[in-house]
Specification:
45% of the residues are buried. Helix content is 35%, strand content 13%. The two termini are 48 Å apart. It has a domain of 159 residues: DD-peptidase/beta-lactamase superfamily (Beta-lactamase, 3-Layer(aba) Sandwich), CATH 3.40.710.10. It is built from twelve helices and eleven strands. With 379 residues, the chain is α+β, with helices and mostly antiparallel strands.
């Protein structure tokens, strides 16, 4: 911009300062956030470990901030106690919420129990008969590879168009009647162990392996009963998870990558159980060493363990980080489900945060930032 000669008798610098002051005065003051409702304050416990109004505001933003989608439930636990719990209209503490991929972490715990029982082995070839035929390179896939999403199988989680993705085909199209069979039939696209590729198909293979470890029967009802009884006796009843309901396909395979239903409190219980390294109310339910392996980075991905997301920084990536490594400790880990289901656990801060709802890809980015605000209240 060309400067024009200044003819005023007022010195230049004071004049500029006066103009800046007048300009600042003409600007509207920053708007105050709306007052919190009684419901927003009532959602916060009496001793949350931070200012009640500050936590109430952080929780309220997850429900009301523009562009976060539909939040149905938020529950915060600190040191094993509920310090915040809020639901949107039509939902309450008894409502069962779909897990989507949060079920994968439950599947990892199921496999851990079977390994501890001596029914499965972590680093031997995965017990899938069709892979053990002479000359089949899939025979090199181990249980560890499957747990860490590095089997090398041609499983494309998100395809374009969507109906061509492995997940959609398995869950809803040609694989839906026997999901595990369809997932196991897919060929290799990479050497087993070399490449991380997130895959719901892989979790269903793990669920099928679990069923075969518990029963020799191929009858759907026998398979359903074997897994349901084992999950309830060894995991859900000890954890007092009274609302949880797993789904099965027509072949009796537990849909361990996508479909479980439970209340926000039960999802929080499971998060607390993992925060305490497989222990609940003083009882070691899952071997401590397995719980630690679940949150140990895989060789192929710093932000993934055994069917569990990790808050670890990673090198350049094509997609946004699923958590917030710049805003919380790297020891944070999470169960994450489609459309914004989260159980996020911070062992260092003794926090477990549950958010359940319905948010698209863009909304999840904004919503997750609001969730991160809660963790920043507890340094």
């Amino acid at each position: 911009m060309k400067l024009r000669p200044h003819f005023s008798s007022t010195p230049l610098i004071p004049a500029l300062a006066l103009a800046a002051t007048l300009s600042a005065c003409s600007e509207a003051p920053p708007s105050e956030p709306p007052p919190l409702t009684e419901d927003a304050m009532a959602a916060i416990g009496p001793e949350p470990g931070t200012a009640r109004e500050t936590l109430a505001r952080a929780v309220d933003d997850i429900f009301t901030a523009e562009g976060v989608g539909e939040t149905r439930a938020v529950l915060v636990m600190r040191e094993g106690e509920i310090i915040a719990e809020r639901y949107s209209a039509g939902y309450d503490a008894d409502t069962r919420h779909i897990s989507w991929s949060m079920a994968k972490t439950v599947t990892a715990a199921l496999i851990g129990l079977l390994v501890s029982d001596g029914k499965l082995s972590l680093d031997e070839p995965a017990p899938v008969p069709r892979w053990q035929r002479t000359g089949d390179a899939r025979s090199e896939i181990t249980l560890r590879h499957l747990l860490q999403m590095r089997s090398g199988l041609e499983h494309t989680e998100a395809g374009s168009p969507p109906y061509e993705s492995s997940e959609v085909r398995m869950l809803f199209l040609d694989g839906r009647s026997d999901m595990a069979r369809w997932a196991k039939e897919q060929p290799l696209e990479a050497e087993p162990g070399a490449k991380f590729e997130y895959s719901s198909n892989t979790s269903v293979i793990l669920a099928d392996i679990a069923a075969r470890a518990l029963t020799e029967s191929d009858e759907p009802e026998a398979r359903r009963k074997a897994i349901a009884d084992y999950l309830h006796a060894r995991l859900f009843e000890p954890l007092e998870m009274t609302s949880i309901v797993p789904e099965f396909d027509a072949a009796g395979t537990f849909i361990g990558g996508s479909l479980m239903h439970a209340s926000a409190r039960d999802w929080a219980r499971f998060g607390e159980f993992l925060r305490n390294k497989g222990s609940y109310k003083g009882t070691q339910i899952l071997p401590r060493a397995w719980a630690e392996q679940m949150v140990t980075p895989s060789p192929a991905s710093a932000h993934y363990g055994f069917q569990t997301w990790l808050n670890r920084k990673r090198e350049e990536a094509e997609t946004p980080h699923p958590l917030f490594p710049d805003r919380a400790p790297d020891s944070v880990f999470a169960m994450i489900g489609h459309m914004g289901q989260y159980v996020i656990v911070s062992p260092e801060q003794k926090l477990t945060v549950v958010r359940l709802g319905h948010s698209n890809r863009e909304e999840r980015v904004k919503m997750l930032g609001e969730v991160a605000d809660i963790f920043e209240l507890y340094p």
